[in-house]
Design goal:
The chain is 65% helix and 12% strand. By secondary structure, the chain is mostly helical. It is globular. Strand 2 (81-86) and strand 3 (89-97) form a beta hairpin. It has a three-stranded antiparallel beta sheet. The chain has a single domain, classed as Orthogonal Bundle (Arc Repressor Mutant, subunit A), CATH 1.10.10.10. The longest helix has 22 residues, at 12-33.
Length: 143
């Protein structure tokens, strides 16, 4: 019965450790672009579609506005994004990419492949892992 509380018996610990390791693998590539992992996530959301409101970005990244706002301000200072209040509702802030933000995408496009190579895993293995993780995440969101 006590073995259930052993660290080696836990599923959460290797997942937590893997998450940290993956982010660690991204760091040197993101350092070259002078952005953090969190900033990279925001930029990926905007590369998919822009403009988006702070709330839309927050929902996609599971971040509240208190966490997201300082991150967006730093991206704006680096001239990767613009923050504009909507004329129809000044409480709503829209986020768009600058020319620098668009150009950064072409530099970032190889990062996922470089990270996979650094971790010595195939695209197929990563896809399988992602599918399992998404299955679990989708089940927990529904409960």
């Amino acid at each position: 019965m006590d073995e259930i509380l052993n660290l080696k018996s836990q599923v959460c610990f290797p997942i937590y450790t893997l998450s940290r390791e993956i982010i660690h693998q991204y760091r040197p590539f993101l350092d070259e672009l002078e952005i953090t992992y969190s900033q990279y996530l925001v930029l990926m959301v905007l590369w998919e579609q822009e403009p988006q409101t702070v709330n839309q970005i927050g929902k996609k990244l599971y971040l509240d506005s208190g966490t997201l706002t300082p991150l967006l301000k730093r991206l704006e200072l680096k001239k990767f994004i613009t923050r504009t209040r909507k004329p129809s509702d000044e409480r709503v802030v829209e986020i768009g990419l600058t020319e620098n933000g668009h150009e950064l995408k072409s530099k970032a496009v190889l990062i996922p492949q470089k990270v996979a190579e650094a971790m010595s895993v195939s695209s197929e293995e990563l896809l399988e892992l992602k599918e399992i993780v998404m299955k679990i995440l989708n089940k927990t969101k529904c409960s």
